[in-house]
Structures are given as structure tokens and as C-alpha cells.
Design goal:
Chain lengths: ~260, ~200, ~375, ~80, ~260, ~375, ~80, ~200
């Protein structure tokens, strides 16, 4: 940035190297930007970029491969955990993670994530739950809150017709193949920090050779929610967490599996 | 007679809405119409656009390779759609955001401070309706009365909103009626205030 | 001149004075047309460029006390459609190319178990995730090889939003008459554009089917299934299906022609490509080339005999598609080498421009000009004649 | 955004070309030192953020932690400035 | 059976009417036969047959429609809950149940059962878990026990390669859309009776207008397991239940939802 | 006389003395051939009649320290294959018709993102759940419209188990040479029958690909993807793909002929149908009708020119398929109406008998007999000539 | 399997044509009254089950409850038989 | 020369195994062979079968519409496959289970109590191998020595099993060598002991 070569200022935070220096297509204030940055920071800090094969999903984050400077394979919508399984099995030394939205992971990709988890695939899953189908224009997702208005639940999500928000990470945490499962959020800087710690743990679990690790991140979709970025953050902080409580559900490297979520 | 207009600018500038209003006005006048948006996630960043074709007989292609009018509300739009104009075509430029001047000398370029006028009219988002006013001032493909009626159709039973939009339309209409027509060649340059 | 073998809503301007045309987006117009056709249940999953169809249904169906379910996936949606349609309900599902691919198995099941329903594919650029631009590259899939096994489905392709409205009602009628799924093959333009539509809809009459599942009250139980484990039985069932396909091929051929009376060059195009062709015909005629349009409306059954009848008198045929050339095979099959065929296509979400089509038409006319007859055709020229 | 020894210390570099004016940084700055510069529209079409008072910034990094577009570079305030 | 018309004996058990009088294609001692019979008995006892639309899955039980005298629709492999959703929504007065194997429900059909459950579809699910793909020749299923030999786990299922047995009913029980979830077995007559009671409860839950009800039934596949029918029953009674404990996991009509399995 | 454009294992009896033939089941032979071809990973899901292929892999791959995963579904399997193959590994997947239908989306993705791998379809009767009997009714699906968008895949069809072994190695080679999925289209007989195979396998050489994902060490990151959101870009990518397809169409055409030197009637058949045809040719010749066989081995690219070259000299062509008639369209396209085409097919899991084929051949010969030339052909007879 | 008033009471009808000889009924009979009749092969290819001692049968229905092929009809033992 | 044999009976009677042994024996003798089973769930109930074709040149269709020999181990098999026999073809009938007699007079029908002989040989499941012995006795399409070698190939390194199987083979062989050939017409009837 600086046009003066003799910049003597000591950097205490800079854009991570693994984050390509380009502007993203995300809407202003979109949580994906924050989470991309966290992934990139960890790739830098853990020196993982050269050994990483990322698995992109279909959703607003489909372009993750344009923003993260690592090898990437694109998956059909929902199939990232299967694609990651393929990568993982033939590349035992690679660091493999998927980056998936809630429509991708918790709707169309349910079978794939459940069975990657049941098999205990040694992959890390970054699960960005913004409670909506962002990319296609803000339709209801299985994660959408009750009463929430979306373009496909214009009268608000009603349980009797559209069912209940799905606590998929709690379901996955039941499986012995899941070594680590946690839910964080990006609603403010301290929570962002906590989420980053969860992601770090998830990555460590993979590096330790254990089973599947997943971090669900309560994110924002200001455009899909019809809110300002500021309102969206507040909504996560106060409302979304009521349905999706934060915390570590299971860490089977630390504690023995209990079979029940430890939310 | 067939008239194709391309509205283009940033997503969020109300382009699709202005195009719909024009299209509805043409339907009101009993013409054949086709309104075709650019769609999908690309609308979120960069340039969005829609094409409105108005004709007196069944319309062929809803996608055009030549337009009679172009409304360019931001710099990339100008670059992208100016070449599409037929000779003698109309180019409405949002002078509030676009400092560049058109490259072509064979068109009628009308710079209007659409964003500024929109803000004067009460909301930044009127920018496209202001531009629509300018368009109709120069190319009365539909009447102002039809536009007013069309606003009612598109906005539904919200008279205050209709009135506000129509006021914005009139601002643009008036500005274009008095604007100087630019016909000189110009080199493309982006606004350079980007990095302070 | 426009001849239609199916009654369609007249274009704006020519509309019956009584009902004022309204501006409708293709996706929404098809959705509303389905509702007005008596659609009792809709199942879908969001995807560009068909999302507004689902959204329209999300609002309207509950209003009317009918069924709307946004499924967990296209697989879910199409199998819900199977279940609902197996009870005799009038059922619609919709998606776009990648989502349609996921429906291959269930479509084969429904063809096999003779479940009537309508599926709308608002095509986008492929292969793979591709783009979201309008496309016609799922022609092969819709007309030939989507699912496994021997089956064919009626495929209807609208070329205007007014026609999309009319074909939606027709699709339900055909589906029920023949107990078969029917595909409406629309491209992204047909889904996303707005055009005036005279809001006069048609509700095809319902006949009691006699096979539908309602609970076996006072009658033998019924089974809707595609399994016939003994190959002999399955073959017999296939003979039944093939006879049905033959009946459809005989009775459900639809097409339209424009400006063919004096045409030297016949453009064969459907959907949006046919609209582009209309503009191109005007321009070509301005340039002195007499072109006209043959527009298949039913892609299966393909109007082979009808095309042959008009094309055999012409100098050349130009096939225009938003694909790398798929319908061109059916055109070749129809013409059997008797008229030179040229192809003009755009792929990946691009729409051909009228100028490109004019160029192709002018070129075709020139290469096949009668004054060249007997003159050697260059190898290059030969190569492009299919 | 240039810092040089003989100028007032600049604790932040703001890559305004990538800023989308979402305002999240403004929300989190404990000293309310950030605002959108409405005199500017960048190539993306947004008013980018700007630091209103370099001297008051504590380099607390909260703005950088929340920014979805990784717009900030934050520098340690030299002792005594 | 009797050739004497004046048979005066009082029947205390007879083949249920809803069970078609034909021999089945099931192997000797196959649990499907027992479970079919239980379904038929309940259809008789609850007078449900005329209002029932059954949803068949793909597995050895695909022919259920040949054996149960009710309307039936066949589903593609794994999609029965989606098909049942379609039936249910347009036929609100019908009694709708699926009959699915473990390969069908817990493997290929994972997304469909999870989301029918999340939506709280008013259907009953008879989930026949024999821990194997019976119909295709005895391959490993996601439910197969660790160490179990199958044609696709010839060395015994090993968790590191093929993952862990999946407790899918426990996972489903977490969902508020699931009104009733239980696991029974057919290992002996008392257990068969208990299972039948669970199935009755599941059917009642549907008739009461509540959400999805599911009964997982630990069944046998003597042929696939390479055991005699007798050995297979003993195996269920002693071994399979170690991995899949019997019991009612949730009954949200009775007790308020706890969010955690009550095994 | 048997001409093969591809080197295949010689039939038993003619085998090299050195290596004794062993009896192998088709499914197992293809599995072992893949292993010997250097297949590093297999992904599958049980389905009849391909289950033994998966079971063979379940035993052998772990033995060899290679990857075997029984996926949760065919969707899972094919997407695992996508992931593994994207890293440059040699990957096999297999299924049968209904399972193949579920793979449509991912196949389109792999075609679009140019991921080489081999998929074996051991076809069974359809549509729907159908039967488990052998079938060839997925021809359209394999060669034309399986997934969405403009793409084609090489399709190889073995007609003996020895050939299946050879084609398995070839398939990997073609896949990698062109960066494309390749389909081996086998029918249930090819999967279930046992025949002698000389256990001499081929391991195609590996060339470093330069696109595969290995982790970006000391180089720019790589992306394997099919998304090109800007239609202009996607169109450019499609042009690249089409050029590749043209190259495949030029270089990878495979076929075989038998007894064509003096044939009046050319039977066109592949896979098991071609085997039935062989018996039929013998019998027809005993009855005085000179028949021979043209056997496509690559179904796409279809050996059109090669067929035309031999068929134009014949009186009639008889297409034999275990379907209601699918390849017959490609035969018609190849011949352009120049030779009368007859069709003889069985469906739903039934295999044509030699007698039926003989009958069709004799009939075709009679109807097209030269002494009838100039004599009016009855309408009935015309109708059956395609 | 015929029962008539003047004959010994037959507590079971066994539909041997549907029996697959799985032996499960034999396992559960508390009085060990069932066995496979190896002198017979039915149309399905199996030796069907048979009741060895009608008089000893208590009509406890366990055999019917376990039979996968719904082969049994069980009758109440008249008082005093 | 080409010889097609159909083995048929209940699933579980070892038909596929006997077919494989015959096929292996032919491979050992350097012939072309094809072995084709009926497959899938139908094998669980009713009738299963496999077809073995042995020839001196490349085999055409692996599915036959005429067989030189048929082995029928249960009643439905006889009904299903007898019609397939060529005139003069060989029909081995498992007289232990099949009371019916063949309908055709133009074939060579050899009733052998295969099940009984199998039980004598030590295991019910030898029934197909017994039948194979009978077949080879009447139609020596391969040599007994090749059968013995083939048993080794199919069963692997289990000499006791090979010996037991070969003993069963020999029982069948012997029985057929001495059996009376039936050529008379007979009416089809099922064994009537089904419902006691
Ligand atoms: C098979 C298939 N179905 C549907 C789509 C359309 N589609 C693209 S992204 C998306 C969902 C995105 O939602 P989510 O995963 O929550 O991601 P977000 O955009 O919210 O981050 C859908 C349905 C597709 N590309 N492919
Ligand atoms: C799409 C698809 N994949 C695979 C199959 C093959 N198939 C038939 S049944 C079955 C599994 C049966 O297992 P399960 O559901 O456990 O039932 P079971 O036979 O054990 O009762 C499979 C994989 C199929 N018919 N369709
Ligand atoms: S639509 Fe929502 S999720 Fe997608 S980029 Fe915009 S804000 Fe983010
Ligand atoms: S958070 Fe980042 S993108 Fe948002 S306004 Fe601040 S600097 Fe700009
Ligand atoms: S570093 Fe801290 S004090 Fe400085 S601008 Fe950012 S948030 Fe405000
Ligand atoms: S294979 Fe197993 S599940 Fe299927 S019928 Fe036989 S015993 Fe039952
Ligand atoms: S349980 Fe039933 S099928 Fe089994 S032996 Fe007894 S009667 Fe026969
Ligand atoms: S009813 Fe009871 S006592 Fe009688 S045979 Fe059956 S199990 Fe035995
Ligand atoms: Mg989302
Ligand atoms: Mg099972």
C-alpha cells in the first residue's frame, strides 16, 4: 500500500498472505468475507497453504478458490464432503477442508456430510450457516429460523408447512467418527476470535490424524435477510443463537466420546 | 418501429425497476414489449443491466446486438454498453458518477447528474428513475402520462411513493430537456478519486 | 405468417380487447399458468434462473390452500412429485440444468411407472456448474438420454412468455392423457424476461384416472411401480410403453412456421433462438435473402415429417441453437441428407445475435446458390455442410 | 495513508479500493474513529471507510478483526506517540 | 385350510387379512416376513387398510406391495420419505407409511429421511435394520457392525477404512419434527410383541396428527450374515443390541421434547 | 475374419501358449484389469448386476494398499471419484443403470472440469427399477444426454470378457490423454458371464499431468472447476471442449467387423448383441443369406464413416440391440438414408435369440432382394425400412 | 390338519405350502412340539414344519408370533381337552 | 463343435458351482467357454440356472435358444428348460425331487436320484456335482480327469473337499452309465405330497 519504501511502522495486523489481493464479489458486510479471512489467517499461521487442497461448495462462497491462494477443487452442490473424501483417501498427506454453506451442507448435502462424519473422514469442515440460500436470492434454508421471512417463505417460516430449523451439527456430534464439533459466530470481534480458535482446533484435529472436525459458524447474509450489516450482526448475536447455541459439542481428542452433544 | 433501451449501472441503483416502469408504460400503450435483465449473483458486484424493447409488432430477439438508447449509471456501464448504440443512438450518462466522456461522435450523449438529482428528489435510489425521465425527454417512446400510470402498476397502491418517483422522473425529464448535447470524441478515463 | 399447431395466447396488440395484457416474467407466468391449470402441488429447490418460479409458488400455493414444498434437494423435490402425482394430483416441479440432472433416476421411474406430472427446466449454460446464462444445451438430455432405460417424454419448448403460459396448460393435459411426465424446456431468457401476457388461462378438464392411489376402499389395491423383475414382464411393459410413445409421436407433434412460403433458406430454431431467428429473417430479407422459420414446439416428438415437407423445397437449412449443436441431429434424421444443413450456435450462456444468424443464412444461401450448381464446391464449404 | 518518520503516525493503512462501506468497522471501533467517506465512490461503487483521527487510534485491531474485506493493515503505535 | 366346513375351532391367531395369501420371496427365516406380518396385523387391528397408501423402498422388501393388500407406490432407492411427503401433502386423510431397509434409509436415503423428519412430515417409518444390503448380495451397510464380514468388507468392517455403525434413529430423535422414535427387535416373541407395540404407537402418533414417527427394527438377514435363522436371532439378541440399544428414544406426544435421545 | 482397431486379448484357444487362460467373471475381470492398469482408487455402491465388481475391489484394493470406498450412494461414489481424480489419481467407479442415472450431474461436472476417470455401467433393464436382466437401453444416456450441457464422453462397449479386460486399460489411457471421463458400457451379460481370459494386463504409462491438485508447493495454486460465471468465458471453455471432442472423434474411433467381405446384409450390433449376431451370421449363412457384422466398439465417437463405407455396398443393414432402438439413430445418421435399415431389438432384460436375428436378417435380405428392384415394395414393407 | 368334532383337537393349522423350513417356530415352542418334516419337499423346495403332538400344544401362539411366513393358524383349546 | 448345457434347480443346490467346474474343465482342455448364470434375487426363491457353452471356436451368444443338455434338479426347472433341448438332447432329471416325466420323446431323458446320491456322498449340496457326473457320463464333453483338475482350480487348495466332490461326481457318473434311457411321452405332474 505504502508508496514510501522506508516504511518503518511495525505491522501488528495485515491481510493474510493466503488471501488473494483482490476484491470479492460478496455483498457489503457479508460474513463470508470474515470467515475467508480467518481461514487464510490460519493457513498462514499454521503454514498449511502449500499442503492444502480446498474443496469448494456451491453457494455464494463458490468463488473461494479465487480468494484463497491454495489448490482447490469445485464440488457439485452439497457434495463437498464426498469430493473431500476422494481427495483425502488418495492424498493422505494433504490438508483437506471443505467450505460449505448451510443450504449446501444441511439441505442437499445432508447424506454426504452425515456419511463423511460416520466414516470419520480426516477432513475439516467449515460450515457457514447464514440461515438462508444467499446465492440464489435469499430463499429459505433448512436452517432458517421459525418465522423468518425469505423469498420462499414470504409469510415467515411456519413449522407446520416447512418444518423446524435443523441442528445438524448436534446430529453430527453424535457420531463417533466426528472428533471435533463446535459452533461459533462472527457477531463481534471477541466471538470472531473464539470462532478462529475453534477453527484452529478443527485443523489441529485433522493434523493429529483424528476423525472429522467441523465448525459451524453463524454468519450473516445482510442482503438475503433484508438488513444492514450492522443489524445482521446484532440479529446473529441476539436471535440466531437462541436456536443455535454456541459452544463445543464434542472434542473426542480431549474427552472421551459421550454419544450426546455437550452444547 | 422498434426501440431497444439498455439500463445499466451498479446493482442497487434501481435499474431493473426503471426498466419495468418503461415496459409497463409500453404495455399500457398497447405495444409489444420485452424486458430482459442480467440476472444472478453478478448483480451483486460490478455492473447490472436490463434491456427493454418496445415495438409495434411482435418482438423478435429479446437480446439485442444494437440498442437505440443506453442509460449508463456508472463507469463500467459506459464502457460496456456504449459500443452497442446504433448511430444516432441516445446515451444518458450519470454525470454524478461518471467523469469519463463517451468515445463515439456518432451518438447523442446526454450527461445528467442523476445521482445528485436523485438525492435532491429525496433518495439515492431514485437515480434510475431520474435517468428514465431524461431518456423519455429525449426519446418520447412512451408518454409521461403512461409512465405515471405504469408507476402505479409497478408500485401498487402506494400513491406517495408513486408521486415521489414521478417527481424524480420529472427532474430527470427537465434536466435532459435543457442539457447540452455532447457529440465530441473523448478518451476514456476512470474517476481517479478512488484511493485517497 | 405464424401457424401454430397449438392454440396459444395471441401476442400483445392483437389481443382480444376484453382482457388487458399484463407484463409477466416468464418464471412467474409459467407458475401462475400452472396454478390456473389446476396444479395442486408444487415441489422445487432454488436455482438460478428458475428461482422466481419457486418463489411465486411459495407465495401463491399456500394462499390457495394448495401444496408448496421447498424440498431439501432436487432429488427430494422430484420424488415428492412422484409421490403426489401417484395419487392422481396435478403436480409441477421445476429446476434448471444441474438440478435437472439430479432428477434423471426419478424421471426414468416416473416414465416406467407411468406417473403424469410436469417438469420445467429453465436451462442455463453447462456443462457442470457452468454459468447461469440462458442455454439450450439440455436438448439431448430432455429428448433422449436423461434417465436409464427405454423411454421418451413429451418435451414442449415455448418461444414467448405467452406461449409458455399456453404450453403449461397443454403440458398437464398431455401428461394426464398419456400418463407420462412432460418436460417444458425453457431457456434462461424464457424464465427471466418479462413480456405482455393476456391473463386468460386454461384449466384442462380432469378425468378420473382409475389407476391413482387413494386408499383401497371397496376395490382391489393398486400399485404404482416400475419394477417388473421378470424380464419377460418388463418387456411386455416396455411394449406397452413403446405403443404409447408411438401414439404420442403420432398425435402430439407441434410446430410453427414463419415466412416459409417463398423461403430459400429455412431456419430451424426453437425457444429464444427462434425469436432471434425472427429478427434475423427480417434483416436477411432486407438483404435480399428469402429466409423463413420452422420452429419445433414439441422437441419430442420432433416434427420430422413436417420439417421434411418444407425443407425439401428449400435450398438450405440453418439450425440455430444455444448449444454446440444438438437438435441438429434430429434435423439430420428428418432430412436424411436431402437438404444441406448448416449450423449456427452459441454456447455457455450466450445468445446468438441476429447478425450472426443473418450471416449464417446469407452464407448458406450463397453456398447453395443455384447458379453454383454444377460448379465445384470447395472442400471447406463441403465440410460445413452436414 | 502514507506514513513516514517525519509525519504524524498513521496506525492504519486502509485499502479503500476493496472497501464496501459496510460500516462494520465503524460499529466496533471503541473510540468511534471510523466513518464512511461519502465524497468518494470507489470502483466497486461504495463509499469507503476512513480514519478520522489517527492520533486517537489505539491500534486495537478490532476494525481489522471484523472487516469482511480485509481492508486494514494495523501498525503498532510507537512508544510515546 | 380346513376341508371340513363345520370347523368349530375358535381362532386365536390367524394370518392377518391385510397379508396377501401367497408365499414370499424372502429367504427362510428372514425378518422381513415377521415385520410384514406385524404391519398387516396392525392394519387389520386399527382398521387402516382402506385409507392406507404404503410407500415401498428398494431392498429385499421392494415387493412389500405384493404381500400387503393396500395401495402402494414404489420409490427409487432411498427416496421413500420424499415420496411419502408427496403423498402425505396431497392426501391429508390417508394413512401413509414407508417401509425401508437400512441401506435404503441410512445410506442413500439419508437426506430424505433427515429432512422428512426435520419437516415433521406426518408419516410413519418402518425402518428394518438388518445391518446389511440384503437384496444385492450381502454387502456392508452403514449400519453394519464393526468387525462384521460382508461381501464388501471381507476382512470385517474396520472403522479406520469404513467408519462406524450409524445410529441414525438417535440422530433423528434430536429433531423436533420427530414425534416418536423407538428401536425394537424381532429376536424372540416377547421382543416381537414389544416392537409391535412401538409400531402401534407410531401409527397412533400419525393418526393423532403429530409429526414423523419412526420405529427402527433390528432384523435378521440369515443369508447375508451366513447364519442359520436361529443363529441370526441369537446374534440380534446378544450382539446387535450392543451397538443398537433397544428402547423409546423420544415420544413428544407424551413427554415434552428434550432434544436429546432418551435411549 | 475379425478386425479390431484396438489390441485385445486373443480368444481362448488362440491364446499365446505361454500364459494359460483363466475363467473370469466379467465384473471381476474388469475390476482386476483396472487394478492391473494402475487404478489407485475405486468408489462404488452395490447394485445388481455389477455387485461383484465392487466386491472384487473390496477385497483386492485394501490388499494392495490402495483405496476402496463403498460410498453411501452413487452420488457419493461419483463425487468421491471426482475428488480423487482431481488430484491426478487413476480412479474407477462403477454401477448399473439406476445408479448411473444418479451420476448425471457429476459426470457433467467432470466433463466440464476435465477430470479423467473411468466409469463402468453394467446395464440392466429399465426404465425405473425395471429388472436386473441384461440390457443396452442406456445407449442414449451414455452417448448423448446423461448430464446437462454440451459435452460428450468416450464410450467403449466390450463384446467379450477378454475385450472388457483390454478396454479397461484403454479407457484409462483415453481418459488421461484427453482429460475426460470415459464410460465402459457393458451389459448384464458382460458383467455376469464367465469366459476365459488370458491374464496378461496392460498398465498404460503415466504422464505427469500438470493440472492435478497436489498442494501448491512452489507453484501457482490450481483450481479444478467447471464454473465460468461469465458466459463469454464459459463459451470459450466450451470451444476448447468442443475442439477436444473433435480430436477424440478423429482419433478414438473403434470398431470391428466380421464376415463382411461378401455380406449382403450387415448386422450392426455391439456388446452381447454382437455375440448373438455372431451365432446368427453362422446360421444365416447356413440358410444361404450372406450376412456379416459391423461392431462399433466406441459408441461415441460412433464409427459413422467406417460403417458407411461397408454398408453402402450392402443390400440392407439390420441393427440388433437390447433396447427399443437407440443406436439405430446413429446408424441412420451414418447412412443418411442410403441403405435400408431394419431393427431387431429386445427390451427389459431380454437378450435377442440367434433365431430372431436370423429371421430379421433373412427378412431384410428378402425384402431388399435385387430381383425385387423396380418391383413395387408394399406399404407394410416400406414402413419397416427406416 | 383337518379337525372335526369327533377327532382329536388340532390346535394348529399349518400352511405348509408357505413354510420355508426356517426352524424359528421350532426354537420358540416351549414344549418342543414342532419339527421339520424331512419326508416332504414343498413347491418352494423346503421341508415344512409339523406339529408332533397336538395334544401337548398349549396354543400359546409363540410359534405364530415368530413365523416369518405367517404359516400358522392357532385355535383355542376347548375347555377340558 | 459347440455344446450348451443348462443347469437348473433351486437356489442353494450348487448349480452355479457345478457349471463353473464344467467350464473350468473346458478351459483346461483349451476350449472356448462361456458360463452365464441367472442372477439376482430371483435366485433366492424359485428356479435358478446357469448355462455353460463349450466350443472349439469363439463362442457367439452366451445366451442360448437351444441347449444340447439340460440338468433339471427340481420340478419347475424341468418345465422351464425341457423345451430348450435340441432333438436328441440330453436331459438329466433329479429323480429324488422330480416325479414328473419329460414330455418330449425326441430327447434322451436320464432320471438320476441326484439328491439321494448326494446325501449318500455326504452332503445334500453335492446334488449338482452328482448331476454333472451323470451329464459327463452320457456326454463326455470334457474328460473326468479335467473335471478333477477343475475342482482343484475352483475349490483351491482343499484336497479333502476336492476328493469329496469328485466322489460325488463319480457316483453320478456311475449311475448314469447304468441308467435306463427314457424316451416315452409322459404327462406332467407335480409331486403331490406338498400339503400333507
Ligand atoms: C444441483 C444444484 N441445485 C441448485 C443449485 C443452485 N444453488 C446455487 S447456490 C445454492 C444454495 C446456496 O446456499 P448456501 O449453501 O446456504 O450458501 P450461501 O450462498 O448462503 O452462502 C443453490 C441452491 C445448484 N447450483 N446446483
Ligand atoms: C439407485 C440404486 N442404487 C442401488 C440399487 C441396488 N440396490 C437394490 S436394494 C439395495 C440395498 C438394499 O439394502 P437394504 O435397504 O438394507 O434392504 P435389505 O435388502 O437389506 O432389506 C441396493 C443397493 C438400486 N436399486 N438403485
Ligand atoms: S447474498 Fe448473502 S451470503 Fe451471498 S454474498 Fe450477499 S450477503 Fe453474502
Ligand atoms: S468493515 Fe471493511 S469493508 Fe466494511 S466499511 Fe469497514 S473497511 Fe470497509
Ligand atoms: S484499530 Fe481500534 S481504535 Fe483504531 S480505528 Fe481500528 S478499531 Fe478504532
Ligand atoms: S437376503 Fe437377507 S434380507 Fe433379503 S430376503 Fe434374504 S434373508 Fe431377508
Ligand atoms: S417359522 Fe414358519 S416358515 Fe419357519 S419353519 Fe416354522 S412354520 Fe416354517
Ligand atoms: S402354539 Fe405354542 S405350544 Fe403349540 S406348537 Fe406353537 S409354540 Fe408350541
Ligand atoms: Mg446460506
Ligand atoms: Mg438391510
Amino acid at each position: 500500500m505504502s508508496t514510501v519504501t522506508s516504511d518503518t511502522r511495525r505491522v501488528i495486523y495485515r491481510r493474510p498472505e493466503a488471501l488473494v489481493d483482490t476484491s470479492t464479489h460478496y455483498c457489503p458486510g457479508c460474513g463470508h468475507g470474515i470467515i475467508h479471512r480467518l481461514v487464510a489467517e490460519l493457513l498462514d499461521e499454521m503454514h498449511l497453504a502449500p499442503s492444502t487442497i480446498g474443496v469448494a461448495s456451491v453457494g455464494c462462497s463458490v468463488f473461494a478458490y479465487d480468494y484463497l491462494a491454495i489448490d482447490f477443487v469445485e464440488s457439485p452442490h452439497g457434495r463437498a464432503p464426498a469430493v473431500a473424501t476422494g481427495v483425502r483417501r488418495v492424498r493422505p498427506d494433504a490438508f483437506v477442508f471443505t467450505y460449505q454453506g448451510d443450504g449446501d451442507l444441511a439441505a442437499i448435502g445432508t447424506a454426504e456430510i452425515v456419511h463423511a462424519a460416520a466414516r470419520g473422514e480426516r477432513i475439516s469442515v467449515i460450515f457457514v450457516n447464514n440461515g438462508i440460500y444467499g446465492m440464489t436470492g435469499g430463499q429459505m434454508a433448512p436452517t432458517t429460523l421459525l418465522g423468518q421471512h425469505t423469498t420462499s417463505s414470504p409469510a415467515g417460516r411456519e413449522a407446520s408447512l416447512a418444518g423446524y430449523p435443523i441442528p445438524i451439527t448436534e446430529m453430527l456430534a453424535l457420531l463417533p467418527g466426528v472428533t471435533y464439533a463446535a459452533r461459533g459466530s462472527i457477531a463481534d470481534p471477541p466471538l470472531i476470535g473464539r470462532t478462529k480458535a475453534m477453527m484452529r482446533r478443527a485443523f489441529e484435529v485433522q493434523l493429529a490424524g483424528a476423525g472429522l472436525s467441523i465448525v459451524e459458524i453463524l454468519s450473516t447474509c445482510p442482503v438475503g435477510w433484508g438488513m444492514t450489516p450492522t443489524e445482521a450482526m446484532a440479529h446473529v448475536a441476539h436471535d440466531v443463537v437462541q436456536t443455535y447455541p454456541l459452544g463445543v459439542m464434542v472434542d473426542r481428542l480431549k474427552a472421551p466420546a459421550t454419544g450426546a452433544p455437550e452444547v | 418501429m422498434q426501440h431497444a433501451t439498455v439500463f445499466s449501472g451498479f446493482g442497487g441503483q434501481g435499474l431493473l425497476f426503471a426498466g419495468k416502469v418503461l415496459a409497463e408504460a409500453a404495455v399500457i400503450e398497447g405495444r409489444d414489449v420485452s424486458w430482459m435483465p442480467s440476472y444472478g449473483p453478478e448483480m451483486r458486484g460490478g455492473t447490472a443491466s436490463c434491456t427493454v424493447i418496445i415495438a409495434d409488432r411482435p418482438i423478435g430477439s429479446p437480446i439485442v446486438d444494437a440498442a437505440e438508447s443506453v442509460v449508463a449509471l456508472n463507469p463500467p456501464s459506459l464502457a460496456k454498453f456504449e459500443p452497442l448504440l446504433v448511430p444516432g443512438g441516445l446515451l444518458i450518462i450519470n454525470a454524478s458518477l461518471v467523469e469519463a466522456e463517451p468515445r463515439r461522435a456518432d451518438i447523442e450523449a446526454v450527461p445528467i447528474a442523476c445521482s445528485a438529482l436523485a438525492r435532491e428528489a429525496g433518495d439515492d435510489r431514485f437515480v434510475s428513475i431520474v435517468a428514465l425521465g431524461a431518456l423519455i425527454a429525449r426519446r418520447p417512446i412512451v408518454s409521461a402520462a403512461s409512465i405515471r400510470e405504469a408507476l402505479g402498476v409497478v408500485l401498487g397502491d402506494r400513491p406517495a411513493l408513486v408521486a415521489a418517483d414521478f417527481a424524480a422522473f420529472e427532474r430527470g425529464h427537465q434536466a435532459a430537456s435543457s442539457a447540452v448535447i455532447k457529440r465530441r470524441r473523448a478518451r476514456w478515463r476512470y474517476r481517479r478519486r478512488l484511493r485517497p | 405468417m405464424v401457424l401454430m399447431t397449438t392454440a396459444t395466447v395471441a401476442p400483445a396488440g392483437q389481443a382480444a380487447e376484453a382482457v388487458r395484457p399484463v407484463l409477466m416474467k416468464g418464471n412467474e407466468a409459467m407458475a401462475e399458468a400452472a396454478i390456473q391449470a389446476g396444479c395442486e402441488a408444487y415441489f422445487g429447490y432454488p436455482i438460478t434462473p428458475q428461482a422466481e418460479l419457486l418463489e411465486w409458488m411459495a407465495r401463491r400455493m399456500p394462499e390457495l390452500g394448495r401444496v408448496f414444498v421447498q424440498a431439501e434437494s432436487e432429488l427430494g423435490a422430484i420424488n415428492m412429485a412422484l409421490g403426489a402425482a401417484a395419487t392422481g394430483a396435478r403436480v409441477l416441479a421445476s429446476s434448471s440444468s444441474p438440478g435437472i440432472s439430479l432428477m434423471a433416476e426419478a424421471m426414468s421411474y416416473m416414465a416406467g411407472s407411468e406417473v403424469p406430472m410436469v417438469l420445467i427446466n429453465v436451462m442455463r449454460g453447462g456443462p457442470g456448474l457452468g454459468s447461469i446464462g440462458p442455454s439450450q444445451a439440455d436438448y439431448f438430455q430432455a429428448t433422449k438420454g436423461h434417465g436409464h432405460g427405454d423411454y421418451r417424454l413429451p418435451v414442449l419448448a415455448p418461444s414467448s412468455i405467452a406461449e409458455a403460459v399456453a404450453l403449461t396448460a397443454d403440458a398437464f393435459e398431455v401428461a394426464e392423457r398419456y400418463r407420462t411426465p412432460v418436460i417444458i424446456l425453457a431457456d434462461g431468457v424464457m424464465g427471466q424476461a418479462m413480456e405482455p401476457v393476456v391473463p386468460v388461462y386454461r384449466t384442462p378438464p380432469r378425468e378420473s384416472a382409475g389407476w391413482e392411489l387413494t386408499g383401497a376402499v371397496g376395490r382391489e389395491p393398486r400399485v404404482v411401480r416400475s419394477l417388473h423383475l421378470r424380464p419377460e414382464e418388463l418387456e411386455a411393459h416396455n411394449h406397452h410403453l413403446q405403443a404409447k410413445f408411438a401414439a404420442i409421436a403420432e398425435h402430439e407433434v407441434r410446430w410453427a412456421v414463419e415466412d416459409l412460403d417463398d423461403a430459400d433458406v429455412v431456419i430451424v430454431a426453437y425457444g429464444t433462438s427462434a425469436r432471434v431467428a425472427r429478427t434475423a429473417v427480417e434483416r436477411a430479407r432486407e438483404q435480399g435473402v428469402r429466409a423463413g422459420i420452422f420452429r419445433p414446439i414439441s422437441l419430442w416428438p420432433f416434427p420430422s415429417a413436417e420439417l421434411a415437407a418444407v425443407a425439401l423445397g428449400a435450398r438450405a437449412v440453418v439450425v440455430v441453437e444455444m448449444s454446440a449443436g444438438q437438435m441438429v441431429e434430429d434435423v439430420r434424421l428428418a432430412l436424411g441428407g436431402r437438404t444441406p444443413i448448416f449450423f449456427q450456435g452459441r454456447t455457455g450462456g450466450m445468445v446468438p445475435t441476429p447478425s450472426e444468424v443473418v450471416e449464417a443464412v446469407v452464407h448458406a444461401a450463397a453456398v447453395t446458390a443455384p447458379h453454383l450448381a454444377g460448379h465445384p464446391v470447395s472442400d471447406d464449404e463441403k465440410a460445413e455442410i452436414r | 495513508m502514507v506514513s513516514a518518520v517525519n509525519q504524524v503516525f498513521q496506525p492504519l493503512d486502509i485499502d479503500a479500493a476493496h472497501c464496501k462501506g459496510c460500516g462494520l468497522c465503524i460499529d466496533v471501533c471503541p473510540h468511534h474513529l471510523l466513518e464512511l467517506d461519502t465524497s468518494i465512490v470507489n470502483e466497486l461503487g461504495y463509499h469507503p471507510t476512513r480514519l478520522t483521527d489517527a492520533a486517537a487510534c489505539t491500534s486495537c485491531v478490532l476494525c481489522a478483526r471484523v472487516c469482511p474485506d480485509a481492508v486494514f493493515t494495523v501498525f503498532a503505535r510507537p512508544k510515546g506517540t
